[in-house]
Write a structure and sequence with these properties.
The protein is mainly beta. The protein has a domain of 99 residues: Ribbon (Umud Fragment, subunit A), CATH 2.10.109. Helix content is 3%, strand content 43%. The chain has an eight-stranded antiparallel beta sheet with strand order 1-4-5-10-6-7-8-9, with no helix packed on it. Strands 2-3 form a two-stranded antiparallel ribbon. Strand 8 and strand 9 form a beta hairpin. It is globular and about 55 Å long.
């Protein structure tokens, strides 16, 4: 069974102490005022998106099965393994020896792994499948 995705995992590195500059006032999409002073702070993406360092991983998606949910090929996912999987959440799942990212559809006696691209079929999880819901996607960093 092909799930349509390939996932590579990374662990956040909050030890480095590095951060990027953040303009506090926001960035105008109109004409900038010459009187505006940019007040700069350092920001760390890890500190912004990681709530539980021990349980958080990054993964880069290769595939297009979740395009309708805004997860495109090359995007970076932030996955929290400490969160409880719930109906309609996007999760990284390990099914029958393969990792995939899908939306969970939990019904009374069945779980479906739902793609967000009509080119892919939902995966109905039966007692014949081995399923581990590995973690819940909390953020996506877009590749432009």
């Amino acid at each position: 069974m092909s799930t349509g995705d390939k996932i590579i995992f990374f662990h956040p590195d909050q030890e480095s102490g590095k951060g990027s500059f953040l303009a506090q006032e926001g960035i105008s999409a109109g004409f900038p005022s010459p009187a505006d002073d940019f007040k700069e702070l350092r920001i760390s993406i890890d500190r912004e998106v990681v709530k539980n360092e021990e349980a958080t991983f990054y993964a880069r998606v290769s595939g297009e099965s979740m395009q309708g949910a805004g997860l495109d090929d090359g995007d970076l996912l932030v996955i929290d393994r400490s969160l409880e999987p719930q109906d309609n959440k996007i999760a990284v799942c390990f099914i029958d020896g393969e990792f995939t990212v899908k939306r969970l559809k939990v019904q009374k006696d069945c779980i479906y792994l739902m793609p967000e691209n009509s080119k892919y079929e939902p995966i109905k999880v039966t007692e014949d499948n081995e399923l581990i819901i590995w973690g819940v996607v909390t953020y996506v960093v877009k590749k432009v």
